Amino acid sequence: MSDAAYMDRALACARRAADAGETPVGAVIVDEAAGEIVAEAHNAPIGLHDPTAHAEILAIRAAAAALGNYRLREGLTLYVTLEPCAMCAGAIANARIARLVYGADDEKGGAVAHGPRFFEQPTCHWRPAIASGVAAADSAALLRAFFRARR
């Protein structure tokens, strides 16, 4: 499957988050060589009463449990609908995610292309390959509609 197809799956996860009243962010971890989804998740800090329950963190936890290792094997790609924050970027580095693909930029809370630019820091010990802007318009529209409905 293509980046766009996996991002569509992440968007479906994001829609489930919105349906649950959570900020609509979804994540999917894919084993590129096998062409299979290892884990997927959506934001759930409200429902889980856990400020760390971002889609990326939950997907990484599920993948680590499925694979039996806190360091994920080579060849895994994380697809997420929104630019990861600093916490999630740290988790991506610690899990050794090989590739990060994200949709919408997050100028306020993002830490990849914005803010601290986590992976560009000399103290960052792992840097995934990064692709941005995949389904960015759809991801941003979902977020805008979610927050517009709450105003």
Write a brief structural summary.
It contains five helices and five strands. It is an alpha/beta fold.
Q: What percentage of amino acids are in beta strands?
A: 15-25%
Give the neighbour order of strands across the main sheet. 2-1-3-4-5
Q: Could you tell me how far the N terminus lies from the C terminus, measured between alpha carbons in angstroms? A: 37 Å
What characteristic shape results from the CA principal axes? globular
Mean pLDDT: 96
**Percent range of helical residues:** 25-40%
Give the C-alpha Rg. Answer: 14 Å
Which structural class should the secondary elements be placed in? alpha/beta
Helix and strand succession? HEEHHEHEEH
Number of strands: 5
The largest β sheet comes out as:
5 strands, mixed
Total helical segments? 5
Poorly predicted sequence stretches spanning 5 or more consecutive residues = none
Structural account:
The mean pLDDT is 96. Strand 3, helix 4 and strand 4 form a beta-alpha-beta unit. Strands 2-1-3-4-5 form a 5-stranded mixed beta sheet. The protein starts with a helix and ends with a helix. Helix content is 38%, strand content 20%. The protein is built from 5 helices and 5 strands, in the order H-E-E-H-H-E-H-E-E-H.
